[in-house]
Amino acid sequence: MQSFLKFYLPVYMFVYFTVVFVWPSYRTWKRTGVNPVRFNSEDTAQNYIGFVMKLLMLMTVIVVLVFSTSGKLYQYFLPI
How far apart are CA 16 and CA 78, in angstroms? Predict the structure, then answer.
């Protein structure tokens, strides 16, 4: 089962992020010409939440890749 997850999780994550984030962002950019991923340099709550979301997505990708490539290194992460 674990060998199945080591292959399935990265594939699922790639498809999920593409369908949920990349494709809608690309469509918005093509229709409006505005990049929906880029935030201002202002110090607002919206920019902070955007930064936290990007950070959480990056951390999730790192944990899944570490799980898929190195079982021993994954043991040092908190159980997610």
Answer: 23
Average pLDDT value for residue range 8-23? 90
18 to each of 13, 40, 48, how far by Cα in Å? 8, 24, 23
How far apart CA 36 and CA 39 sit, in angstroms, is: 8
Tokens of 19: 């369908």
The token pair at 36 is 């929906």
Q: Are 61 and 13 in contact (CB under 8 A)?
A: yes
Tell me: pLDDT of 80 over 70.
Answer: no
What's phi and psi for 76, nearest 5 deg?
Answer: -85, -10
pLDDT digits (tens, 9 = 90+) for 48-63: 888 888 898 898 888 8
Q: How far apart are CA 29 and CA 34, in angstroms?
A: 5
